[in-house]
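My current task is to audit a protein record that another person submitted. Thanks in advance; the entry in question is below:
***
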Amino acid sequence: METQSEDFSIGCVLSIKTTLGDEFQAQIISYDRHSNLLILHILPKNLTVVSGASSIDLCMCEKFVFFFGNYAVSLTLTWKLQEELKSGAGAKRNIRLLKANYIKEFTFLGQGEDPLDAKRCFLDLNTLQAREESAIRQAETEAERIGVGVTPEAQSLFDALSKTLPVRWDRTTIVVMNEVRVSSPYLPESVSGGTPAANERVRKVLEFEKKRLQSRNVG
């Protein structure tokens, strides 16, 4: 469908039909002329659209729904409306990124206010900082699980041991329960340290996982 950039002014509400068969109502959050990409707030079907209404003003976002052509990566978005900030409640909203050339037809329903007006939006910096710190800790934890300079088989054994036992890398050595060490070539006889019971337990798990990996490779 032939469209003009003026058709996609910020805040306007449209009824949209796509070339992929989707039909929905949405408010335009932003439009990038260079990429011809629309950022849309998908409105509830039972929402009454009133021009300039604050009922569709958006505030804090958490997650997104990305839509590019025939491919969609769906996550849930949470925005907080001004009314909900008072009560502490948060309604869930869907956001879609859509190439304008995938619009088959659209109808103008009304004009809302700028959904990203900083004067009406609430940004919870404490929550964002907490999420950032949590993501960094998670990334560091995951990075520590990846052995450096080890074979794929050694990494597979580490991953298998980590399912039932606390493990970490000490360079190329697998340290289990902070006391038992499994050195290259990661055979049962490569196990050392720890109490006899802990040592034997690691040997048995290691032997079982080695056999499992070998049978999987043969299969």
Remarks:
- The first helix runs from residue 82 to 87.
- The first strand starts at residue 12 and ends at 18.
